[in-house]
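Lecture notes, unit on protein representations.

Consider one protein chain, 483 amino acids long.
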Amino acid sequence: MALTLAGLAAERPLGLRVLTGDAGLDRPIGWVHPTELTDPQAFLEGGELLLTTGLALDEETSPAYVRRLVDAGVAGLGFGVGLSHESVPRSLVATAAEVGLPVLEVPRKTPFIAITRAVSRAVAADEYATTVRIGRAQQELTRTAVGQGGPAGVLRKLAKLVDGWVLLFERATVTEAAPASARAYGEPLREELERLRTGTRVVSLDGQEVVLQTLDTGTRRVLAVGAPLDTAGRHIVNTAVSVLSLALEQDRAQAAAREALRTGLVELLVGGQAELALRVLAATGGEPPASPWSVLVFLGPPAARRKLLGALDGELFAAKSGGSVVVFGPESVVEPAAEAALRIGGLHGGVAGPVAPREFAAGLEQAELAAQAAEAEDKILVSAAEHTGRGLLSLIDPVVAQAFANGLLTPLRRHDETGRGDLVESLRCWLEHHGHWDVAAARLGVHRHTLRNRITKAQELLGRDLDAPGVRAELWVALQTPA
């Protein structure tokens, strides 16, 4: 930390006495400059402690001299007494007090070189501390980037190192934030992001300095750092930009490789090479899903399919296959996959199974047909069994089908006529979505507990076990028959 005027005055061996400017004693001293010039402005950069014996000063010239020092931006004035002046000129002290310039009286016994050495030691120590801080920060950021933390870990580490908040933008969207509450700054910075093409831009947000810096990546990314940055802080941010750029590009390359591998595994399964596909999956660090498998296919716009792949990455086996996303695994994968598709929007899925690995191709074909049906009917999920069952209606006499439907569904319709709940539509939606509570409830716009209560009531009125596949098939045929 830089030496301040207060810190210098506190060094007892120097014997300095503060005459005026107490409010400015927290100013850091950039350097020390002794001079007897009455106008040294041309030789100053600002932030110096100026030392003089006042050889060319008197009561008349001192006020103008003080004002010139203030204009030059000096941190303070050290006035040596006992040589040209027995005491500091009164007019100098009065003017300094008026303009807020700190004045330190330097006794005759204290040579100016002693003050210079004290400041020099402090500056050297400060520079060393800055170098050490930068070096440690570089090591920490690098370890985080190559370790388990990845890009998100680098952002969290950077926020701690600069004692501020950090955002990572991909185009105009916040992809990472540290802390999470910093996401609130994303929208106010959007306009500034549009002005930044490349390099660095410093902006003000709610009175706080924010540094925007582009990353050297294939996709346009910008790092935003909300913190007052000193020299070390700026070096640390530059290091973070470098390691982030490298980590993000590595992530992109690895993601592309994983995507290609998963697509290849699906192709092997479709080609009847289930054993080879599972061996490859195990050899590349993946855990083969327990069989038999439910197979899901999702159709939709490219952007929505990419989001679904990203949402399921690391959670379920999901792969790009042509113009669709394929997901497979035990039956438990159906609900989280359907929920993710519902959150993203614009996706329509089909589910088939359970199938053994060697029957994957048939399951995939059935799921694709069901997905096409879901897309045509604007539904989130249609099961292959449901889609196939619809063809049975063409084999049943319409009068017989209607009589069957009326006989089966009358208890539910009578209940609904009382206005105590929409059991028929709730049952239809629940069956449409393969009995998955959260997805069906979201589609109906009710809480899942409300849906559970409705299905329980329907089961009581029907007097049948709705968990039985045969009962579900009969109800589905009845619900497809016009009333």
